[in-house]
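One-letter codes give the sequence; the fold follows as tokens. Both lines appear below.
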Amino acid sequence: VPQPPTSYKGPEALVNLRFASVNVLTMRSNEDKRCLDGLLVSGRLEMFRMQISKLKLLFTGMQETRLEEGHSAHTTFGLICSGRDENYCMGCALFYSLEHPYAITVSGRKTKEHNFRKEHFTVIANDPRRLLVCVRAPYLYCDIFVGHAPHSGSSKTDRLKWWKETEQILGGRNDTSIPLISFIDANGKVG
């Protein structure tokens, strides 16, 4: 995992981050019969991409994607998936923008926009309920966690185990002084 520079010489940057977290229930297509009826819509990923683009979101953490493990970059976005379980359930993902700048630098009268590239992202840890990614881009060093905690229908032991394991994963980062952005469906109770 690349480490941040200890010193920096260059123009200052204006960094503008917009992000969201969403439990999508599934990102699988209606051709996939292993998913629940009623949740399947053709072109779901493309519809989602269009909404994210319109909102100019740079990061979107997603839970319950039900997608296979992997990292792909398209023309306007990148998608990192933790992988689903053997029952085609769960799966966390990080959706990031390649079209909207995350930083702008000014040098004299010249401004320069900086966009993410696939190589700025490295997966640190993943399982069907968790995804930890380090972002190492010029002007932005951070780690991003996407998580999906067990709900109240799970045993108390399983819920406590998930939180304990998550604490260990996050505490095991190479440099805990690097900012951590978290997108969690904590399945918490209101009130």
